[in-house]
Amino acid sequence: MPAFKIDDQEVEFIPGQSVMQAALAADIYIPHLCFHEDFKAHGSCRICLVMQNGRYLSACTIPAVEGMDIINIRDDVQEQRKQLLELLFIEGNHVCPSCEKSGSCSLQSVAEFCGLLSPSLPFMYPNRSVDASHADFLLDFNRCILCELCVRASRDVDGKSVFGISGRGSNAHLVVNSADGKLVSSSFEKTDRAASICPVGVILPKHRGFKVPIGKREFDVTAINERRENDAG
Amino acid sequence: MSTGSILQANDASAIVNTVKQVMHPLFDQTYLLQYLIKIQALYACIPPAAIQTLHEKLALTEAQIKSVISFYSFLSIDYQGKYRILFSDNITDRMAGNQSLFHQLSEAIKGADASIDFTSCTGLCDQGPAMLVNGHAINRLDTQRINDIAQLVNNNESLTNWPDNLFKIEDNIRRGDIQLNARAGDGSGIKNAMNLGYQKTLQILQNSGLRGRGGAGFTTAKKWQLCKQSEAVQRYVVCNADEGEPGTFKDRVLFNSSAHSVIEGMTICAYVIGAQKGFIYLRGEYLYLLEHLNDVLQRRREAGLLGQKILGKLNFKFDIEVHLGAGAYICGEESALIESLEGKRGMPRIRPPFPVTEGYKNQPTVVNNVETFWSVSRILLKGSNWFNKLGTKESTGTRLLSISGDCERPGIYEYPFGVTLQKIVEDCGGIETQAVQMAGAAGNTVLARDFDHQVSFEDLSTGGSFILIGGNRNLLDMLTNFADFFKHESCGFCTPCRVGTSLIADTLHRFEKGQGCSGDLQHLKKVLKLMQKSSFCGLGSSAPTAFLNVLENSPDVFDCGMSVESAEIYFDLNAATAEYKKITEPGEKGI
Prior knowledge:
The complex is a heterodimer. Chain A is an alpha+beta fold. Helix content of chain A is about 20%, strand content about 15%. Chain A has two domains: about 5-75, Roll (Ubiquitin-like (UB roll)); about 85-210, Alpha-Beta Plaits (2-Layer Sandwich). In chain A, helix 2 packs antiparallel against helix 3. Chain B has five domains: about 10-70, no CATH class; about 85-170, Glutaredoxin (3-Layer(aba) Sandwich); about 175-390, NADH-ubiquinone oxidoreductase 51kDa subunit (Rossmann fold, 3-Layer(aba) Sandwich); about 400-475, Ubiquitin-like (UB roll) (Roll), CATH 3.10.20; about 480-560, de novo design (two linked rop proteins) (Up-down Bundle). In chain B, a hairpin with a 5-residue loop joins strand 10 (about 400-405) and strand 11 (about 410-415).
């Protein structure tokens, strides 16, 4: 099998695999948010930046090539990730202490892994809404990081295209495909794949708020870098 | 002129019929953007009944259609009035006084059935300030012209009856060299290619050293070769005429003055790679060229230079269709352009695969700049030595520069690569030039002390834009203009560009108001470097260039925007508590 290196560790790969896929198969953690192994790579969050030949590339979008020498965990690479995470935090309204997703939030856990404790840039405080129209689920757009995992899950697995992205640039935002734009008027169901895919706290099940106390949640028990992708859910 | 009056959007069944006519006979998803552009022109908006009809006929969800509408600046759900007036807002328009003219017209047409706003550079920088009225370009705005336009709007005069001289656009070709002085496009280039066969044709292009004129400078022969080698059901030739880089207008002039040559270059490409279908992706700002281009295409079909059996060769068929853009700078990025050609939001794709292997409809596609195809038509007539004897080792031949800003003779200049900035500045009559902005908003800011540098891929590369900044200008104004531009044009896909462009704009506006702080500059530098290293596509990685140049080479430019308190962070208590005050103060809006 052909192989390449991540932080001096030999990693075998099947031709066609991305650096991210090969790393996951070899149990090497590369921090990421918009990547999910059940879906095609997206490349938007940029958190999985790695260094190859002095250049930053996203591990989820570059094909693994024999002989590559990838740097994953090193201070300068982690620093870039930290800055990217900071941008995600200041762009939305993330209030971790009161967020139902705290402790099982990928954004929070990846930030902890990369060493981001508090942003230094000014918060943007965008004016975003909440959609509580659905009986079983709440949509809190304040926390959306535009990873499009729900868009992809709904379209590619559920065959429904309940979610989409509208607008451009800093106006890009998640929308629901229904006549009035409300979740209740869409074909969304609690059994959908899209219902359990959100890595942050946008798509939240109702009626079980704080059932698991903070401190005993998924990533409180096992940090995000120590678990396998499919444990999620 | 095609635009007559705007249709009333209150009769749903009439709209349904009109939209069906617009879609007829193709009813094809990949034409969604083209349908929307036509509907927008008819109704000055995309009415709900139109969205409903598109949804039913094209098997797209309403959310998908709305998300396409929301991506392109020239499309809108809201009614834009019988006259939609968009002032070009490049730095050159601002230098020529577009802001006060904008306010003059806004005041003069208050209450009219019209909307008025700014838009990104419309490519008339050599004859600005400029505007678009319902998509049609008007140049050389001054108080007199604004008065005339206000009168026409207030008199409710149909655009078809506006005087022709308002819409006269100039070519302003100031300096020709071997390419502008040669004539091509009558089919002899295609004939030569066919006689030589595709391998020898590629060899000639290879020997000429021609590199893509869009800016990235990929070797043209190699691009074609890669496309030809890729397995395919179909191959496509795409001409990138989404000339959105602020300050660039050479493609507009080439289409106006030598469209035959450009199309001949595309046809030669089709012959080499074996394509049967080509597209010209024409930016919406150049709507006025559409009729002319379609005319030229038709004439070439009639002359046997396009269509079936080109030049009598039985198995060589190739035809070209013009697709319009609708106000999105990102569509100049080749993979975003292809998404847009497919009728979608113009989002850049993951690369690799590159368009030469998976492009339009996932088939191998050559995407080249207008000027590249134009040069091909000449090289195939004159030979590779004729071309490569000029220029430098890595940058052979000549190229066109779009020159604007503070100079006496703005317009199109052809120079061999290797020419110094000093020579160009002298030739065009630069007025106390303190700096040149190369390659548009995304390029280098070169200060006068560095004018001994050369225009070439190995020194200072440019997509063709060359803006002169006079001694009395404040570079901070230019950077603020660019910051607004990038914030407006970022597609929003990747984190660094989406958030970074907003941060840059916020910071520059703080300096504009004299509220800048030393801490701001540190943050700004950090964000700019992050964007350079981590952005998903070229927009995000090139946007920081000018800002970083000025920060590094001329940091005192920012001094005038510094807050007097010179604190590390500026804090405005009144602004920070404004929202709170609005809620708590007694009155109508209080709780």
